[in-house]
Amino acid sequence: MEISKLDKSNQGEVNKINTFINKVFCENRDLKEQMDSSISAKFHKGIYSVQKDEEILVVASTHKSTWHPNCIYISLAYNLDRIDELALQSMITELMDIYDQPLFFLLDNRFYQVKELLTRNHFRMIRKTEIIHINPILPKGEIGQDEQILSVREICTNEAIMHSFVQLCKKTYTETHTDNPVANLPIESWRRAAMDGLMEEHSYVIVNGMQVTGFSLMYKYDEKVWELGWIGVDEISRINDLDKLIHKQLEDAAKNRISFIEKEVDSTCPYSLHICDSVESEVAETLYAYMK
Known about the structure:
Helix 3 (85-98) crosses helix 4 (112-120) and helix 6 (159-175) crosses helix 7. 32% of the residues are buried. This protein has 9 helices and 12 strands. The chain starts with a strand and ends with a strand. The protein is elongated, with a radius of gyration of 22 Å. It has 2 domains: 2-122, Gcn5-related N-acetyltransferase (GNAT) (Aminopeptidase, 3-Layer(aba) Sandwich), CATH 3.40.630.30; 133-291, Aminopeptidase (3-Layer(aba) Sandwich). It is α+β, with helices and mostly antiparallel strands.
């Protein structure tokens, strides 16, 4: 077996790699899109292949992230129906030798062989993420009106409250991503991340004076599906306050005849885990993050 880094100036090799990726992921469009995203990433590092007798067995794309700069992100492509374990192991070993920083893999159950190999190579599963679909049905029991609950649209012109809101977004996200730490980014980057594509009229905060103590952000996926994004409270003792915010968002979704609300639920995020106990939902997909 031969392991090599792609020379992007060699168009023949580039075409060979692209043909391989298209072939092995012809029935998994989402995996093809993930690989394309890695290859086109701003901080792309390289493309590697394992070949035997000039036949490609495994391709890996590596890149870094602005938000999580302390590791190397790995995307793999291979024939999911015809696994060459030796080729996969060779690729993992090679990448561990090449990079000084930890390697990060985000895998679903289609990559069960890779998960087993990573475990054998002493990678640690740092996070499990369930993609849930929330039914826009109001939970039983009434939740009274709370004058402290405002939409983001209602606070967006108040700079003091907006600053508190963005600071809380940063605090909760940072505290729930300690295994793969967040970069030290300016507060304006956090504001852009929170507000990009935000449905301001369907995203809510709890305000106490000029301080935001809780938030739940909603985004539009398409005409029939919304996506619940960052959620959190300033103190874990107030976690039940999230129920009030979610209740309003379920009301909004029902009024707009939304089919379901999608939410990523990380095992490291107590706020997302709390939501699972508060709504009617089903698991659509499960992802596993491994790092070493």
